[in-house]
Amino acid sequence: MFFDWISGIFSNDMAIDLGTANTLVYVRGRGIILSEPSVVAVKTDLKRGPRVVAVGTDAKKMLGRTPDNIKAIRPMKDGVIADFEVTEVMLKHFIFKIHQRRYLVKPRIVICIPSGITQVEMRAVRDAAKSAGAREVYLVEEPMAAAIGAHLPVTEPTSSMIVDIGGGTTEVAVISMSDIVYSKSLRVAGDKIDNAVIRYMKQKHSLLIGERTAEMIKMVIGSACVTDEETTIEVKGRDLIGGIPRVVVLRSGEVAEAISEPVKAIVETIKTALEQTPPELAGDILDKGITITGGGSLLGNLDTVIRKETGVPVNMAADPLSTVVIGSGIIFEQFDRLRDVLVRC
């Protein structure tokens, strides 16, 4: 008891957006102080066994560029833990880094989870945080955290619709009076869009590219639809026929064609959510519009496509990449008012 009390004094409450692509950490009273890729580099040593050589930004630089005995691992897949031990190592590293190398710390932590998560997956998240040194662990569903971070009136008797497009999942939810009226977690998001670009380059250009190159293409010339003003980019990769490096000039229209399937899946999920929303709440959404957030929402012309397909206004959150973790942090800042939004398990 004394150890828990003394460790609590020197610990800072923190909110963690444990994302498939990136992990962000918000510390109570200080704001966002860490944003790093959810990647861990592990070296296999026959004598000493596996050991971690890099975490976060340093590990991401190694993706696709490591020797056979080093693997850059993304322990989160589709928004949930795919590798428990590596996730625990990653969390410990971030907590240790935030507390400036102090060992006697046991913070309270709010962690975001996808709305479609199972009880087993939920327990894995909680256990990983506990093993990493958390004193208490609270869970909040990602769309709820995103809505709070976007400053939507989640506690009021009016509905708000949030679409959070991350790396592993797209979370669509209708929220009213501190509760989620309807939600759908779709395991199609940024990673699936990147994979679609990789497949397209193989099939249409016989060029093999990596994840980082696909992500770069998406960010620079990616578009959810074909536009009149086309842009191009030079893409470097390995020729699948000759086996030598080659450069291809890729058009934005080709990228729109390549990613049409995942974009269509996201839009259809939003349309289904609108169809399932009670009439009175649907009226509120029509008045206030759909709020989109997450890294995937930055895809060019995505808001235009959603607006065209649904007939509902679309608003971009002020800080799409950080909305979820900001909302989770606000829960700690206003704990008494927002405690009802936490997942009961």
In which range does the helix fraction lie? 25-40%
The portion of residues forming beta strands comes to 25-35%
Q: Give the low-confidence spans.
A: 1-10
Note the quaternary state here: single chain
Strand order of the largest sheet: 3-2-1-9-10
Mean pLDDT over the full residue set: 89
| CATH C-level name of the largest domain | Alpha Beta
Question: How many distinct folded domains?
Answer: 4
Radius of gyration: 21 Å
Number of helices: 13
Please outline the major beta sheet.
Answer: 5 strands, mixed
Query: Which architecture of the largest domain does the CATH hierarchy give at level 2?
Result: 2-Layer Sandwich
Strands, total number: 18
Give your account of this protein's structure.
Helix 11 (302-310) links the parallel strand 17 and strand 18. The longest helix has 17 residues, at 260-276. Helix 5 packs across helix 12, helix 6 packs across helix 7 (211-221) and helix 9 (260-276) packs across helix 11 (302-310). The protein has 345 residues and is of the alpha+beta class. The chain has 4 domains: 2-38 and 77-144 and 325-341, ATPase, nucleotide binding domain (Nucleotidyltransferase, domain 5, 2-Layer Sandwich), CATH 3.30.420; 39-73, no CATH class; 153-188 and 261-317, ATPase, nucleotide binding domain (Nucleotidyltransferase, domain 5, 2-Layer Sandwich); 190-259, Actin, Chain A, domain 4 (Alpha-Beta Complex), CATH 3.90.640. It has 13 helices and 18 strands. Strands 3-2-1-9-10 form a 5-stranded mixed β-sheet, with helices on both faces. Strands 13-12-11-17-18 form a 5-stranded mixed β-sheet, sandwiched between helices. Helix content is 39%, strand content 27%.
